[in-house]
Specification:
Layout (H helix, E strand, L loop, with lengths): L6 H14 L2 E2 H11 L4 H13 L3 E8 L2 E8 L1 H26 L1
Helix pairs in contact: 1-2, 1-3, 1-4
């Protein structure tokens, strides 16, 4: 059994991955799938949504004769990630208190 993943959690995971370095869609998919059970059909709309809202920028880079689309975390995306980390810490704390009874 797994937990249903909402858009906010998916966005948080994507921003966290991109915080470390720019990367391309397939690699983001692999990293997300290590943590969440999510399909590519959910991931790429999330990437587009984050780009449209100014959290990411996109650029193409040639690799072995093909273009890869890379995603880069913007300053606004970094600020959102910082807020989300704080909210996550509070959520974790509250859940731990609840589970410990």
């Amino acid at each position: 059994m797994g937990f249903q993943v909402g858009g906010a959690i998916l966005d948080f995971v994507v921003l966290s991955i991109l915080h470390h370095n720019d990367t391309y869609g397939y690699e983001i998919t692999r990293e997300v799938r290590r943590i969440l059970d999510v399909s590519e059909t959910a991931l790429y709309p999330a990437l587009r949504r984050l780009e449209k809202s100014g959290m990411l920028t996109i650029y193409d880079q040639s690799f072995q004769g093909r273009n890869r689309r890379y995603y880069h975390l913007t300053e606004e995306g970094t600020e959102l990630l910082t807020r989300q980390k704080s909210e996550w810490e509070q959520f974790k704390h509250d859940m731990d208190r609840l589970l410990e009874g």
